[in-house]
Amino acid sequence: SSEGAVEEVWGWEAYDDLLLDFVRRLKAFQTDGIVPGGTLCLPYVRSDEIILFISPDGGGMVEGPTALGQKSAELDQLIRGYLAERADVSARFRSFVGSSRIMKDPKHRIERLLYRGVQDARDQVTRKTVRAEIRGGQLLQDVISRQDIRPVFQPVFDLATGNMIGMEALSRGPRGSEFESGESLFSLADRTDLLLPLERVCRQRALEAAAQANPKRQIFLNLSPA
Fold it and tell me: What is the dihedral of CA 29, 34, 39, 41, to 10 degrees?
């Protein structure tokens, strides 16, 4: 599961390249035996979902619901490691793994069983996404309440003269947290309706820091339209 803003920010070609690179990495994991062998597919022509079907006679059989959950957790960690390497998009790309066990039953059409299995896995992903958003929103609300925002500044130059004419104020979350990246910070705030209170704190902290550093500098502040 991913956030649509990836495509909005970088464009469809960059997003498709990301998905293709992701599938290639999964196939490499299969070749190395890290991920069970099976069939990878997309449920739709344009899709954020990638489905892996593991056949009992195709190697890498996972026995029982406990083992299935463990394999799902391992795959989840692999994906997070992959995203950590892709710092260019990891702030806006979120991934969750769901799984289900599809048992053949002669009383039911195989297509119905497959659809049901895919939907069960999709429902798991939805629940994980919601829980992650709730947890992230609670943590971000705590950051805002404590005003634990670090202002940083980058110089703004006059290209004609080469002179520094001011500083652009940027904001970062607590060091070592999932909000240290400004991209992650504002992306979550936008999704959890905390953008306005976050921006208020960011403006206040930026102006306080700028006043202490050099009050004669021009300070440029980024504001959302809201």
Answer: -50
